[in-house]
Structures
1.
Amino acid sequence: MVWHNDNHGSETESETKIAQMLMDRIRDSVRLCMHDCSGVAFSGGIDSSLIAFVAASMNPEIGLYAIGMRGSHDMKQAEKAATLLGLHDRLHLCECTPEDIKSALLPVMHATGSTNPVAVGIGLCMYFVSGCASKYGASVLLTGQGADELFAGYKRYEQVFDDGGLDRELERDMLALHDQVERDAAVARLNGVELRMPMLCSGVIDLAREIDAGLKIRRQDGYIRKYILRRASAGHLPAELAQAPKKAAQYGTGIQNVLRRMARRDGVTQGEFLAQTRSRNLRQSGFSAF
């Protein structure tokens, strides 16, 4: 491992060095992913804010694309974060409606090959943000995907951290991430957009795998998840963004709540609603079965 907790002084020095190394790797990865027609999928959380900050330093004209239901957490947070970053004039907000979600269900289920509610909820988010990017002329979209699996961003990691199994859990999730990446890319292609993921470039992955679990989750008045990523962001992002809590896109946008209400209106679960929607409309839509 790169970091060993020998004493307080060496710990602080080592943390600083690793944070700088990580920031350098992220900067290099963003540079590799940049394209003349790039944009950033932007929710205003630490991952997308860090990608946006680095990308904007390379191309001040880069667009930031945020989606969600009217009044949703992600729409408000994106506006707030873009303002804090001095990029509000680069932010494009695309509001979703229940009708938009209903019309997108079949293509998203077909592209993802799934009727799983979480997979479809995530797919819908990607469908709308890639559509927003395409609308404003971006054909390549940078996302922060992979940061949670590399640096322990999910709440469920806290228990395995206490049990000493965080590294194994993260490695399993990284292996499973491949399928999610493929599904997201397939959805974005529906709008003619290519996804690029700087956090999943080899330089970032290789360094992340060497970083000790104690730098990914820190016990300090509770748990600080993605601790080293937050340290790397310090001095680059406003503290309010560097310390922003995790909120999954399908919930932060309000899209999952719309699916839940649609299912409840039919008196079924979300999974049943999606399966029934697919069955009712598959033949007339022209999509083949998956």
2.
Amino acid sequence: MIGINQLELKQLRILRALLRERNVSRVANQIGLTQQAVSDQLKKLRHIFDDRLFVRTSNGLIPTPEAERLGKKLDKILSDVEDLFDVPEFDPETVSGIYTISATDYAQIVVMPQLLSAIWKHAPNLKIVVRDFDIDLLSSQIMTGEVDLALTFPDFIPDSLPYLSLFKEHHVCVASDTSPLLGKKLTLTDIASTPQIIVSSSSTNLRGSIDTLFEKKGLSRNVIMSAPCFSLVPRYIKTTNAIAFIPSRSLPEKGLKELDLSIKPIEFEVIAAWHTRSNNDPLHNWILSMLKEST
């Protein structure tokens, strides 16, 4: 074990070159070292293998039987090491295994159907697990590898995670198709007192992302309910006189109509986030490419 602990990869390369060239000067030029550096490494090799390895003659270096024995193994050893850097061409048709995606309910409705179609068209043997997005658990899930990819919004992920922006979205204000607010040009003041439903996966303080818009106008919105996901909001609105701000791609939805607001729609990003360890993973990068194509 002492010899293994002392042995360096560059010494094996030098030994192989010496066996081929039988000349220290030529080996030094090939490897990009000085003759003295090659001679120093040869001394270390002699110590490690407890053998002279080469005998100097007027015709160059002559390998000892031990050096020739080592030479028969060197090509395979160094070839195997070089193979570590050969990245096999990724073929989605042959890929298998499980890939786990954490997605908000919005992403499950708007992003996942097209993504799954693209994945299974090219990678029929890949299994996909979709988990409900949990803002409180995401950091640990990504860190431990429980989740490979998160489809969500920038504010919901740790700053340390890399992410891909998929598209821009904006909120629209919706009401039931029987609402008396329909057909009117409305300001924030007009709707501030109207009962409103917000969407929050974990918050219990009845605040949503639109609150700051009202606050800039000196208004306080009348939030009466916090729902855990966007997909539930239409059902609640249809049976009440409440309104809600939801992403535009959630529409059309039977029974809901968009209100005509005088304000500019609020834009936000929909993103895919992951752990840095996946940056060079061929499967992960292929799925990101499918996301780009499908969104």
3.
Amino acid sequence: MVRVFRMLTMLLVVMFVSSSALAAELRIGDEGAEVTEIQGQLIELGYDVLADGSFGPAMADAIKSFQASRGIKSNGIVDPTTYSALLGRDMPENIGGSSVIVNRILTGAMQYMGVPYIFGGTTPYGFDCSGYVQYVFAQAGISIPRTADVQFEVGTPVSSAELVPGDLVFFETYTYGASHVGIYVGNGDFIHASSNGGVKISSLGSSYYSSHYIGSRRIV
């Protein structure tokens, strides 16, 4: 009975993460044809923006003004409601592509370099490993579970040879199973909240982490 309950719980977690990862939106820092199209529509509506394909502060301000004029929550983010009001059609679920989301994750992760390690920490005042990963992904609009062992059960398994930036890397440290987690940043490195130095970048090839590495998961 306990096993069945655990399987059902994990199924719900996976479904929740998957739906979160597919949540479409565009915000400051995003680029591409979708941004250009939205800028063109804003220009037609009289807003002072450039159709340069880059979502900057001026575009965010224009979006906020548009949202306020339509009674939409004014946050400067193009979510499905805002997109539909602007362009008159539903927003594609995969707008912007996963590369946009990965960029948000990596950019956000780097912002907290040097934040101290605190066991149980989940805020920029102090993180533990899984609290840090959960927080960074949440800032990018993706909800994942709180602890490393449960994070290890969501997403898609990938081998070390298949790693791409944004993947989660897991280690067996102080207890059996996944007990430490970080975010792969490329070139064999990952960023994590370490009990020895806080948020920092380490190498998967180091003697310690290579011997404790147990696998990776792809969330986006």
4.
Amino acid sequence: MPDAVGIPEEQLRKAASMAVCKINIDSDIRMAMTAALRRTFVEKPSAFDPREYLGAGRTAIKEMVKHKIVNVLGSNNTL
């Protein structure tokens, strides 16, 4: 999958089930962080403390990664 940005989750799910060993989700991580930061700045324009807006970004990343592990890659509880 060259330039595998924006691959639908169903295709990623299929690839994971076919023993593809590495699937990058970095673009999804960056998009989740950016969306959370933008949302915070729109909802709280006076927010200037990085602990506030970066906290929202970290939460968004955790939720997205958990979703990918459990619902897309099928890797939940595999270690």
